[in-house]
Amino acid sequence: MDNLAGKLLDLLWYALGVTLTATLVGGVLSPLRGGGWVTVKFALFFIGFALFGYASITLWRAPSLDSDESDESSVSFGVSARERTPFESVLARVVPPLDTLAPPEDRLSPPVKLFVASLFVLGLSLSMEVVFGVQ
Question: Do 101 and 42 contact (CB within 8 A), yes or no?
Fold first, then answer.
């Protein structure tokens, strides 16, 4: 079954959830450095860069779709039937209707979603500096 809209909404919801979580972490760390948005911006940059690296390595290690290798890991690129990650379960509890948009076998794999989410986090960090002037 191919449900492109459901996949994209699931991907968008996951990326927004990761971005919001990273922003909250930066907001919690901000008072430790004297407050302000600069700490949030730097936290978003470092968290986004770490997520980008982790997702890239995970995607790199995932077997390709053309490969005949049987891999025992649950990580795969693209669409696969799988169980939810703990973070996906939390997101499903926050907004239950969004969880029904795409069945599990139609969803993108967690490394793909994490890679896109890292771009959202890095984009928010960049926009805080370029658009909102947080220096």
Answer: no
Give dist(CA 31, CA 53) in Å, integer.
27
In tens, the pLDDT along 18-47 reads 999 999 999 999 888 887 899 999 999 999
d(CA 125, CA 73): 33
End-to-end CA distance of the chain: 47
Contact (Cβ atoms closer than 8 angstroms) between residue 10 and residue 102: yes
The single-letter code of the amino acid at 126 is L
The residues facing 17 across adjacent strands are none
**Residues 14, 101 contacting (CB under 8 angstroms):** no
Among positive and negative, which fits the CA dihedral 96, 101, 103, 107? Answer: negative
124 burial class (0-12, 13-18, 19+ CB within 10 angstroms)?
A: buried
Predicted TM-score of the model (pTM):
0.80
Phi (first) and psi of residue 64, to 5 degrees: -75, 160
* Tens digit of each residue's pLDDT (9 = 90 or more) over 74-102: 444 444 446 778 888 888 888 777 777 77
d(CA 126, CA 61): 28
